[in-house]
Amino acid sequence: MRSPYRYALVGIAAAALLTVGCSSGNSGGSSGGTSWSAKTSAAAGGGVSALVTAAKAEGTLNVIALPADWANYGTIIKDFEAKYGIKVNSANPEGSSQDEVNAVRQENGTSAAPDVLDVGMSVALANTSLFAPYEVSTWSSIPAAQKASSGVWVQDYGGYMSIGYNSAKFPSITSVSQLLGPQFKNAVALNGNPTAANAALIGVMMASLASGGSADSITDGVNFFHQLKQAGNFVPVQATAATVKAGTTPVVINWDYLNTASVVGSSTWKVFVPQNAVIGGYYAQAINKQAPHPAAARLWEEFLYSQAASGGQNLWLEGGARPVEQQAMTTNSTINTSAASALPAVNGTPLFLTPTQATDASTYLAANWAAAVK
Amino acid sequence: MRAGRRPLLSRSRLAWTGTLPFLGYVGVFLLLPTGIVLWDAIHDSSGGFDFGAINTLWSSSTRSYFVNSAELSAITSVIGALLGAVLSYAVATGNPDGLIRRLYLAGSGVLAQFGGVTLAFAFLITIGPTSGLLLHAGWFYDFPQGIGLIYIYFQIPLMVLVFLPAIDGLKAQWREATETLGGSAWQFWRYVGGPLLAPAFLGAALLLFANALSAFATIAAWENQISYVVPQQIGTALSSEVGLSSVNQADVLALGMIVLVAIVMTGYTLLQRRTTRWLR
Amino acid sequence: MAAVAGLHARRRRRLNVFRYVVFTVFGLFFLLPLLAMIRFSLEGSTGGSWSLSAWGQIASYAGPPPLLSGVEITLELAVITCLIVLVLLVPTVIWVRLRVRWMTRLIEALCLLPLTIPAIVLVVGLAPIYRVIRQQFSLSALQLFWVYAILALPYAYRALAAGLEGVDVKTLSEAARSLGAGWTTVIWRVIVPNMRQGVLNAMLLTGALVLGEFTIAYLLLYTNLQVTLFYVSRGTPNAGVLFSTSSAALLFAFVLLLILSYVGRSRGRRSERSKVSK
Q1: Same domain, A74 and A144
Q2: Looking at this predicted complex, what is its ipTM?
Q3: Residue A354 lies in a domain
């Protein structure tokens, strides 16, 4: 083998060694003792204190797609870290639920794989083979309809679709159809693409219900946004705290817990849930079957579902979301009443999409959304 | 007879093995991924042949994505090529050691890579409808005007990078010869400069076309509530959390893109052959 | 002849007017968004005030993820990628020029391919490969260098080919070989020093590419500078740090490229350039 070849080989080998040397460990797997990855409850593994010990020994937790300003996750993560001394690695805060599942598939077998997931219901139902069954200590406080009987997923928090707006710029909004008016030119934004993001799909569905449609068909919603675009009121830019501050997206259709004044960062921000179109959605927690830190993952779940004053349920409530154990906690008075009363007023019967309705909606959107709003 | 030559290793038949590391590297990290995508596009999840997925390429919504992609790429590559050629000419006719040439070359090297969320945001705050600064361009949200303008912003530097060597290769003697024979500037460009530069120009324009076709980060950051072009649709197929995620769909769309781009590439290679003849 | 000289002068004047108009118009077009970015990065918290806090935040923005780690990773990636391009592409290009001319078309086509295969397509096919890399080699984001070197090929190849054109490879190599040099010496100690500017150009274009790359890093679940900036744009109401970091990166690359154009001027190359309308 002659010289250029040899040099190239040497060079590549050197570079590869260089980067391997910089690698962070890549062995997955738990650190001896009780293997928590097979335990389906804290009791089965010897109690919560044993769980805490094992989790602390693991020392790390990998979470994914948890923005700091989403339902108070920033505080939840900090509090968890402070309480147990476990370092939380928060990956891809802007990822979708599908991105979480993709990450699990891509990274399983390494120490960077996500331990726990917080996903929308359609993604949860489609990927149960990736999850490990686990029942938190407060399992009985969770309504049966909001958890999998096998324990592979359990709903955690939810909210209702709302319209948030800058009250300094616009008059009080009392109906969805008001958004078609001329004063909302270049003002109204969704939270993402309805063919990709759950929050956006529910937003279109809310418009559909407000226009007189039913949850079985999203056609009226697509037509509404078509009209919105024709009127020049639709802003296709992703609404973020930065775009709100810059004035690019002064009206945002989003979950009510993302439309609070503190999350948006504007004191003049108001939120409105339409009376005749109360549509809600809950997200679900799941544990990765091949979680690299199984004890920490389960401890995280225990923390999130704890009904303590500083536990996850109340922290979510403080973030403006409705925790799944809200009813139980109201009954046994462990709920943070001031946070509960700060939730946006909701008049009307809330509606939740069934999986069939959700699929029909997304199929319709896939074929018609782009043409309607281009 | 050349002294000092090692007889055995100058067998030109084996000389090509010197390129093996390069070929191997490109094979693993470029050809293999492409092959994987193409393979998965025509196979279903259990490994059997399944050309059915390719039928989705003909559906009207998918067709519209390809049409949009082609439209956006064509417009921005033509405009970018023309403007870039003008700029290249201006740069090439200056002092080869001058500051302006250096500034524009360095700028082109940097701006050709500038894209993504920062570029989209920068344009949004400069000329967006609610821009704090300048124009309040309502058409900025329209396709293809808004994103077209952003694309042109990095197409022109790319054109300069690609086309400048061709203009540099036009010898001054040819211009002077035309002058001596009494030809005007128009005649020079029509009969001498134009035909000489045409293959290089078209080749560069095709390159710009392929570049616009492939761009993803910028348009995804510009508007994300509507998918216009195929790369956005591939992104949706990978990340959609409302049940529209399908790696197979992503593969099929990718197949369509590769075919489209392969056609463009072939055109470019053919044109390149004609170019280099004159510029050697 | 005087008529031709007069013709030259008139033409030169018209040409200069044309050039200055072009430079002004294009200069404004390119500078406008950049100036807007810089202006926004200098904005203070209350309207109308100025502040350097966004620039300070480049170092202090804690995220998660912290901005500085994204900057570090990207800079390291740029260096590693440049090394790979140097070690892989330079000898190949020279070798082909020297010994295997018939492969030029193939190499050129291969080097052009990354520009035309969309990154988003490539990343779908790269996922299984990177899964293996993650599990067998390293979790570090620095492993992106494998694919970044591929992405850099079109730009690096052009720069190297342009640099090689001005070098009389045949004469140099034959002279060196006749004096007993091996091929390694011919390539690295005889030819490369004569195309120093081309090599440096290729390195810096590679660096600019690495600084700006987003899609592949994001979809392969790595965090680099652009991915971090993406998170910043979504995670904070203050877009200032987004603009200050981008401006800094652009300025950095620009200044480097500018300095390069002054360095490494090889003898006789400039005199070969004939301008069209002299």
Answers
A1: yes
A2: 0.86
A3: yes
> Is residue A133 in a domain?
yes
pLDDT by residue (tens digit) across C115-147? 778 888 899 899 999 999 998 888 888 999 999
Q: How many residues does chain C have?
A: 278
Give partners of C (≥3 CB pairs < 8 A).
A, B
Q: Where are the domains of chain B?
A: 13-50, 60-279
Q: How many A/B residue pairs have CB atoms within 8 Å?
A: 126
Question: Quick check: A5 and B222 CB within 8 A?
Answer: no
Q: Which residue has the higher pLDDT, B95 or C145?
A: C145
Which SS3 state, helix, strand or coil, does residue A87 take? strand
User: Helices H, strands E: what count in chain A?
Assistant: 14, 11
Separation in Å, CA C207 to CA A219, B256, C67 = 49, 31, 19
Say whether C276 and B29 touch across the interface (CB within 8 A): no
φ, ψ of residue C273 to 5 degrees: the values are -70, 120
One domain, residues A98 and A181: no
C247 or C49: whose pLDDT is higher?
A: C247
Which pLDDT tens digit goes with each residue over B152-178?
999 999 999 888 888 887 777 888 888
pTM: 0.88
Please choose, from the candidates C96, C272, C99, the residue with its C-alpha nearest in 3D space to the C-alpha of residue C174. C99
To the question of domain C55-266 being in CATH 1.10.3720.10, the answer is yes
Does residue A14 fall inside a structural domain?
A: no
CATH code assigned at A211: 3.40.190.10
Answer positive or negative: Cα dihedral of A183, A186, A192, A194. positive
The pair phi, psi for residue C221, each rounded to 5°, is: 70, 30
In this structure, are A274 and A360 located in the same domain?
yes
Token pair belonging to A255: 């979950």
Chains that touch A (3 or more CB pairs under 8 A): B, C
Distance CA A14, CA C277 (A): 49
Print the domain residue range for A333: 40-158+282-341
- Is A65 domain-assigned? yes
User: B210: phi > 0 → left, psi -120 to 50 → alpha, else beta; which?
Assistant: alpha
**Among partner residues B93, B109, B268, which is closest to C205 by beta-carbon distance?**
B109
Q: How far is B222 from chain C (nearest CA, A)?
A: 12
A370 contacts B64 by C-beta, under 8 angstroms: yes
Number of domains into which chain A is organized: 2
CATH superfamily of B60-279: MetI-like (1.10.3720.10)
